Amino acid sequence: MADQRRFSQRGPRGPRGPARPKRTGALGRADTGERAAVGRTPRVRHRPTGRAAILVVVLAVLIVSYASSMKAYLQQRHDMDTLQSEIAQRQRSIESLQEQKKRWQDPAYVAQQARARFGYVMPGQISYVALDSHGHRIDPEATLGKPSTVGVPQKPTAWWEDAWGSVELAGKPPKQDTSGPATTINGAAGSNQKE
Fold first, then answer.
1. Residue 63 in contact with residue 55, Cβ under 8 Å?
2. What is the largest CA-CA distance in the chain?
3. Whose CA is closest to 70, among 82, 81, 62, 59?
4. For the chain, what is the radius of gyration of the CA atoms?
5. Is the overall model pTM greater than 0.70, yes or no?
6. Which one of 57, 101, 154, 183 is least enclosed by Cβ atoms within 10 Å?
């Protein structure tokens, strides 16, 4: 009898028709004395379904794959930037070497380099080498010294004063050293003696 009552309240399964009673109440069932309490709401249960679990797994796989792809992309960009800067540096080096190769095809440049690097001179020329007090060659410096170490700055003079000074010097020439150039350097004091 209870089964018949429940069946009659729920109605037959199938398409809605005139034989099926209308559902009423909060859950779509006919109101009975069990749900008659006013202000009481039914509990809603949230259970994870298979679809939600699959969605979470798919999202995790996508995040991992995109993260690894992004890491590879950033690494490749860094490698490309490094290689491009290296290519630009090598191109500048190639251009510099090509310019140097053009210079070496000039005979005047070859002669200048032979004089500077090896001390060669042309036939009939005399080469002078400046030595320090220890007998070592003094190499010219490519940098300028500080003005304070050079000396006291001189007041500029007019050109006619320089011209008149040369006229006076011509009338009174300085004494010439007849000892000649030094051939050896003796001692740390650098006293020059002719042999």
1. no
2. 155
3. 62
4. 53
5. no
6. 154
